[in-house]
Amino acid sequence: MECNFQKNHSLDARGSQEEAVENKQKKTNVALVTLAIFVATFMSAIEGTIVSTAMPTIIGNLNGIAIMNWVFSIYLLTSALMTPIYGKLSDMIGRKPVFIAGLLIFIIGSSLCGLSQSMGQLIAFRAVQGIGAGAIMPVTSTIIADIYPFEKRAKIMGLNGAAWGIAGILGPLLGGFIVDQWSWHWIFYINIPVGLAAVLLVSLFFHEDYTFEKKPVDYLGSFSLMGVLLSILYGIQVVGDNGRLSTESVSWFAAAALCSAVFLFAERRAADPIIPLGLFSSRTFVIQNTAAALVSGFLLGADIYIPMWMQGIKGLKAAMGGFAITPMSLTWMVGSFFASRFLLKHAVKHILAGSLAIIAASALLLGILPIATPFFVFLFITALIGLGMGLTITTTTVTVQNIVPREQIGIATSVNTLFRILGQTVMVSIYGIVLNNKMAQLIAGQKVSGTKITDEMMNQLINPLTAVNLDPTLLPTVRGILYAGIHSIFFYGFLIVLVAMAINAFDKEQKAN
C-alpha cells in the first residue's frame, strides 16, 4: 500500500490502528511503559548534553581538537547505520526485544566510554554506544504510536519532549559539575542505572499482542544501505582531514554511488525491503524528513559550539557552558505542546513555516554576534532554538507516522530518525572541516606576521583549566581565532535552515490527520 493522504486509506489505517491500540492497552501498563520510554529518552538526551558540555575538558585532557568531530560523528554514524535495521526488526519481531537489546548495548558502550584512556579508545567505544542508540530514538516513538491513538499521540510526544527537556536542563549542569569536581569519565557511568531502570520497566510491563509477520530478512538491502552511509560519511571525513578533495575521498564517494545502485536494485526486488521505496512516493513524507534532517544538523552545531564559545572564548567553567544551552530544553517542551495543538487545526506546511522561521532567526543571531556578547544573550537565543525545534521535530515525527499503515509505522519512524541522524552526522563533519580550515588559515597568517600560535595552544584554550597556562599576551589572539572558526560554523548553520524553509514551501497544504 502506498502512503498517501487519500481519505479511504486514512480511515482504514486509523481504524485498524485504534483497534490495535485499544487491545494493547488491555494488557500493557500504559503508564509504566510510558515512564520507561521517558526514562530511555532521558538517558539518551542527557548523554548528548553532557558530552557536549564535557568536550572542551576532554580535548584539553586528550589533546584532540583536530579529531574532536569523530567523537560525535562515529556515534551518529553507527546510530544511522543501525536505525533502519532496528526499525525493520521492530516490525518483524516486535518492539520489546529490539528496544531492550538497544538499551543493553547502549549501557555497555557507555561503560566502555567511561573507561577510555585515550581519544582513540573513546572514539571506538562511542561507536558501540551509537549502535545501541540506534534503537532508542525510533523505537520509543514507535511504541508511543502503538499504545496511543492519534489524538493523544502528539501530546505524549510533547511529554516525551519534557523528558528530553528535563535531561537538557540537568545534563549541562550535572555534566559541568562532574567535570569541574571529579573526572569527565563519570559522565558516561550515569547512563548505567538509568538504562537498567528502563530495561526493567519495559521487561515487566510492556506486552505486545500484535502478530508480527515472520518475513525474510533483506540482507542485500541492509548491507548495501550500510555501505552507502559508511562511504558517504567516511568520504566527508577524508575531505575534512585533507582539507580538499583527494583520490581517496573520490573513491569513497564512488563506492557510495555503487552501493546506492545495489540498494535500489535490492529494494525493488525484495519480498520485504528494509526501506520500502513506496514510502517516498509521498511528497509530504520526503519533505518532512528532509526538513527534520536539516534542522537537526543545525541543532548539533549549537549543542557543540555554544558551550565551546562559553569555555574557550569567554573563559567560563564547564557548568556555565552547559547552562548556556539549558533554555533550549525548557522551550522545546513548550514547542512540543503547541505542536500537538496546531497539528489538529493547521496544515503541516504552515506549522513548519513558522517553526523554521524561528530557528532561522536564532541561527542568524549566532552568526552575527560580536566576541564580547553578554551571556544572557545566548540564553535568549537558545530559548528560541528550543521553541523552534520543539515545534519542528514533533510535527515531522507525528506526520510521517500518520501517513503510513500501521505495519509500516516502525520503519517510517526509523526513516525519520535516520534522516535526522544523517543530517547531524553530515553537518558535524562539515563543521569540523570549517573549523579546522578556518583556524589553520588564521594560524598560518599569524606565523607570517611573526606570532607563534600552535595547534597545542588551541587545544589548551578550549579547556578553561588549561587555558590559564597560555601566554596572557597571546590569549586575545588565540581566542579571536577560535571565535572566527565558530562564527563560520553558525553561518553555515543559518544557510541549511534557509534550505529547509525553501523545501517546505513545496509541500501540500494539508493536515497531518
TrEMBL record:
Cellular component, GO, one term: plasma membrane
SUPFAM superfamilies per the UniProt record, alphabetical: MFS general substrate transporter (SSF103473)
Chain ranges of the Major facilitator superfamily (MFS) profile domain: 33-511
Localization annotation: Cell membrane
Membrane topology: Multi-pass membrane protein
Molecular function via GO: transmembrane transporter activity
Membrane spanning residue stretches: 30-55, 98-117, 123-145, 157-178, 184-207, 219-237, 249-266, 286-306, 318-339, 351-369, 375-396, 417-434, 481-506
Keyword annotations from UniProtKB, A to Z: Cell membrane, Membrane, Transmembrane, Transmembrane helix, Transport
Main location: membrane
InterPro entries per the UniProt record, alphabetical: EmrB-like, MFS, MFS_dom, MFS_trans_sf
NCBIfam families per UniProt: efflux_EmrB
Matches recorded under PANTHER family: MAJOR FACILITATOR SUPERFAMILY (PTHR23501), VACUOLAR BASIC AMINO ACID TRANSPORTER 4 (PTHR23501:SF191)
Full protein name: Tetracycline resistance protein tetb signature
Organism: Trichococcus palustris
